Amino acid sequence: MRVISILKRTIIAAAVVALGVIAAPGEDRVASAGSVSTRAVWFSFYEYSTYGLKNQTQAAFEKNAETIFKNIKDSGCNTVYMHTRMFDDAIYPSKVVGWSSYIATNGSKLGYDPLKILVKKAHAKGLKIHAWMNPYRVTPNKILNPAKTKTINRVVKQVKEIINNYKVDGIHFDDYFYSTSSSYYKKTTETKRKKYVNKLIKKVYKTVKKKSSKLLFGISPAGNFEYSMSIGGDVKTWLSKKGYIDYIVPQIYWSDKYKTSSGYVKMFTNRYKLWTEMNKIDLPMYIGLGLYRAGIKPDAYDKGWKKKNTNLKSQLQMIKAGNTEGYSLFTYGDLTSSHAKKELKNFYKELAWIKLNKTKVTLKKGENFTLTAKWFPNAYSGATIKFKSLNPELATVNKYGVITALAKEGSVKIQAYYGDKKKNCTVVLD
Questions:
Q1: Do the domain assignments include residue 302?
Q2: Domain, as residue range, for 368
Q3: pTM for the model
Q4: Do 95 and 167 lie in a common domain?
């Protein structure tokens, strides 16, 4: 496993603790159950240095960005949440905040605009890119005061700066609202925290929609919704009233073998059900999956990640069968890590489908056409795809995918298949 910075360990540990406080059981506009239309991944601030995006020449930055987005595309993802504002800062030349130290030691000397390049390179790979912002955080334990109008104005001003100057597909907030160690938290009630945060959320939503109805605004709250509510993340309101967000990504990072005082519980399944039941307005919901936990030594409670390598596969099956529309993997670096290799192999197998070079062709009697079939995503190396004609009297196909028309008229389906994975090409005989 790659070396993880102390800061990363601190932040992730805090997030996991927060998520586990209670051990109880695309451009989607409306929910399309089980579509898996959004397949996203988070690219976090600590990964800028790890994957060659910090203190680089423009040429090196562009090359490394292309590699990153290729890996994301090959993994089957179509969306990336790119950390853009981490600690009241920016990965681009901002007039609102200063340069982030995670993109450059001295951003003013870079000589290029990292975010502009990232947006361009992501779109070139057919990926959607959302600017991931931490609205309040200044340090891991220090935040801007959510109750202050100047805080709201500062964040909204940066949102405007991003959507007015960059062709991002959306704005994305995560689960850091009130820090429980801050005096702002200790001096307020849960009701007031939610009120202050919602003022910001509604204003960001209106700002985004004023720019374009096609731009999206979403939030990825802690999977423990009780905790999210306690720090100001009013998920029940967001899932019951319009005018707050376009999509939600609850971080359900548990397995189904979670130890409690009364025995093991299916924590992922239980939390998944709770989140979908709260969704009163059929808001597009993508499930945050804990890829970073795959294959690692388990904590004192969540044993499933080490004991099984089919956790993500089972979670994807639930997403496909339920009233949710996709997922987001935390985090990018784990797509290529050794500890997650077995989990990803099983995950890709469940995700995989067959892609054809043509789904409809017209042939005259005696003509041939070579049908090619490959697996999606590219990261999945599945078994050899086979071919068969569903009416060999009209047209045949050999093991190499070569179709031969035998009749003058009619139509026939040529099927590429392996196991329960199938894709048809219609051959029209003319």
A1: yes
A2: 355-429
A3: 0.90
A4: yes
Residue 26: what pLDDT?
38
- What tens digit of pLDDT does each residue of 261-288 get? 899 999 999 999 999 999 999 999 999 9
Do 210 and 338 fall within a single domain? yes
Question: What is the mean pLDDT of the segment spanning 38-42?
Answer: 98
d(CA 202, CA 412): 54
Residue 243 near residue 281, CB atoms below 8 Å: no
Nearest to 185 by CA among 153, 137, 149, 222: 137
Out of 312, 331, 351, pick the residue that ends a domain.
Answer: 351
Q: How far apart are CA 200 and CA 197, in angstroms?
A: 5
| Angle value at C-alpha 73, between 208 and 308, nearest 5 degrees | 105
Same domain for 139 and 282, yes or no, is yes
Between CA 304 and CA 297 the distance in angstroms is 10
The helix (run of H) or strand (run of E) holding residue 38 is strand 38-43
Helices assigned H by DSSP within 222-380 = 225-230, 235-238, 267-278, 304-307, 311-321, 341-351
**Residue 377 carries which side chain, given as an amino acid letter?**
P
